[in-house]
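This part of the workshop introduces the protein records we will be handling. The structure tokens are whole numbers drawn from a learned vocabulary of backbone shapes. The record below serves as our worked example for the rest of this section.

===
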Amino acid sequence: MLKYRLIFGPLMIAFAFGAFWADSALDHSTLRGMLSDLFMGRSYAPSGMVLAAVVLFLLIPLASRELAGFLRADGVMCHTWVVTIAAIAACLAVYATPQAMKASTGATIIASVLIAAFVGTLLWHVRNAEPKGAIAAGGATMFAVVLLGLMPGFYLAMRRWHSPWTVLAILLICKSCDIGAYFTGRAIGKRKLIPWLSPGKTWEGLIGGIVLSMLVAMFFAWLSQHTRLAFVHRGPEPTLEYSYSIGWAAVTGIVLAIV
């Protein structure tokens, strides 16, 4: 297991850095001609286009297929393509809602997408005049919408207001808890954390994960003060840059690890 983690982990990190680098490069690219016309005459692309493409067309379809398989194994009549479309629609609603739109209108759009996903699932399920399992199928779609649509959508929403490196830092802070917990637990873990849920996890591993997340958060805060790990928003407003407090970053790292 450790061998596969050591192989797969660096490959995933390399892919993530490549996607975030491409997304950052797009922020500094100027659109001309047909490309500018495609984005309603703007000279710059909306923030997060590369990350949105990766999430919408790669991560969500793969995750939807896996989740649908789990649900079918539990006896829930779940259709992979229905789950995939619903999750993509919810994620896109969070990411693509115009920034200038009133909050109430944005909330209405997202709520409408959720209702459409639920009703659409019910209609598809009973297309053969068999209502049995329709509510379970609708509930499975709503679960997928929240887990695979709205939650990744928050990362894309953050990307609209922050640089890709800020979003990547949040992802790595969260993932650091897994890494720290795994290696600390293997080294000194003795007291079981939640045996009925995950027998391998220990209190020592949890503490190790929290500490590593805290240190990684502090490291990124330090980078923000000494590099251009900055907030980027290209448009009529001036470009803004944030540097993050190391003390508050420590608190954030602890909170994200526990969550």
